[in-house]
Amino acid sequence: MNNRGTIVVSGASGLIGSALRSSLLSRGYIVQELSRKSNLPNGQSWNPASEQMNASILQDTTAVVHLSGEPIAQRWTYSVRQRILESRVKSTALLAQKLAQIDAPPPLIVASGINYYGASCTGENGDITEMSQSGSGFLASVCREWEGAAQPLINVGGRVVFMRTGVVLSAQGGALAKLLMPFRLGLGGPISHGRQHMSWIAISDLVSAYIKAIEDVSISGPVNAVSPNSISNKAFTTALARALSRPAILPLPAFVLRLVFGCMAEETLLADMKVIPQRLLDMQFEWQTPDIHSALLSCLNKKSNE
Ligand SMILES: NC(=O)c1ccc[n+]([C@@H]2O[C@H](COP(=O)([O-])OP(=O)(O)OC[C@H]3O[C@@H](n4cnc5c(N)ncnc54)[C@H](OP(=O)(O)O)[C@@H]3O)[C@@H](O)[C@H]2O)c1
């Protein structure tokens, strides 16, 4: 296969990075990882917390995909909040500054979240698009600063894409993987009243959206990386139970989540987010699994008649 170029991926060992890496390799790209780990066979180590990286990895690169950041799904103590924010802002600023020094810099594709719009962002007509304003809350401010840190590259005319990502569905990790065990034991159920909207995307579609962002030079700015069919938490619960052929009757009360996870629960598990992938729709992006049933079956590796 022809070499299609080199993609530098930070956080390539993570949930999205591992899937993206495999897909890029199968399309004929070379993948160079940027990781805090040392002795990488294909890549370089960096330390974004102390703003240390060897910029030589960015030379002659087709694109840089920036996925690294402290995990969100943990109790937000003061120091965890600091790490969630700084691990994204400092690393993005470092990459943007180094890339801005290159003549004709490669594009930078940065992960971001639909949390940019706030934890309660259903809009009057459910019309939260990339044109919508940022909302309130810790994660919204993290997303604003995270995206803002790429400004040095935008200032020199660099192409920067912000992948405002919804809940990523994968059996390998993230929210779905955590739910599988209780649901398989018949202990699953809706979160709280279950009416809150959930904007999600199957990992295979997210990977395709990243590849589109790398290859389509006309794309820059925010892209809502979600399925066109957001659903209520109750509908998601029913679909997951159906995919696993298990009941889902035990609701998980909001107060328990608030007790265990504090603010993190409020801004993620209990959030009401109905987001439209307007830019992907406009560019006629083709989702392989746009509806929740096909997405869950594909993530769980099941056929529709199983
Ligand atoms: N998964 C989702 O549902 C979802 C939804 C919306 C947005 N996102 C965003 O998309 C990005 C990738 O998500 P993911 O689920 O693939 O994340 P992940 O599995 O947690 O992996 C992120 C990577 O970041 C690096 N990392 C971890 N802690 C770090 C820290 N304190 N400082 C610097 N680097 C750190 C690690 O790579 P090394 O150890 O190799 O450095 C890790 O492999 C994240 O920024 C996440 O917030 C994810």
Describe the structure.
The protein is α/β, with parallel strands linked by helices and 306 residues long. The protein has a single domain (6-299), classed as Rossmann fold, CATH 3.40.50. The protein contains 11 helices and 13 strands. It has helices spanning 15-26, 78-100, 138-148, 151-155, 174-184, 203-215, 233-244, 254-261, 263-267, 278-282, 292-299, and strands at 6-10, 30-35, 43-45, 63-66, 108-113, 120-121, 160-165, 167-169, 197-198, 200-202, 221-225, 231-232, 272-273. The strands form 4 sheets. A 7-stranded parallel sheet has the order 3-2-1-4-5-7-11, sandwiched between helices. Strands 6-13 form a two-stranded parallel ribbon. Helix 1 (15-26) links the parallel strand 1 and strand 2. The longest helix has 23 residues, at 78-100. The mean pLDDT is 93. The protein binds NADP nicotinamide-adenine-dinucleotide phosphate. The site of NADP nicotinamide-adenine-dinucleotide phosphate (NAP) has 24 residues, from helix 1, helix 2, strand 5 and strand 8.
